[in-house]
Sequence to fold (205 residues):
Amino acid sequence: MSESLWSLILLIVLALAGCNDGSEPPTEAEGTMPDFERLPSSAIEDYSDGENYEHLTFDGEDFLIARVWSSEPQQAPFTQGTCAYWWYEIAYQTPEVNYHISTMISKNDLWVEVDGKLIEIGQAKRGMPPRYRDTFAAGEEPEHMALADWDYCGHPEATFQEWRLEQGGLYRIKVQVFGSAIEDPEGGVIYETYHHFTFLSRVEE
Fold:
């Protein structure tokens, strides 16, 4: 067998070995938001069956199944992974009381993909367990999580929780519709509608 053929076989073997080196395959967190038409939050009503006790139904279900995207992917503050959106909460918990220390929410844009369109999420809410949860004694949390003012709160420990939405991830989402009426300066009434998107669970694919 010629030397060039042996070299080719060796390259193929090395390439196959590299595909099984234990590294994680790329995930949707690395994806780019599709370039679909963008619609306001109110457009979600056009894709629903209608309203049922202040929430919309979709194909007979009390939730929407859709992918979530952001044009500005974020780095989750605790788990450090790339995501579409995140929340975190730091609290001192006792059997009787939950003492709030800090809550932060990602402020980037967020969209759901429905029927080849991108619909803006009016308000994203968490309705699922946290992706990350751990308790640390005061000052013992990892350096990148040093976000609690221990001197001010005076608690001996705190529980750190993080929720995040994966870029391009598929979720069950409860969509609620709220309305308000306010009087304008000229004596008329201004009606406003709000849409809350509560993320219930990740749909495994």
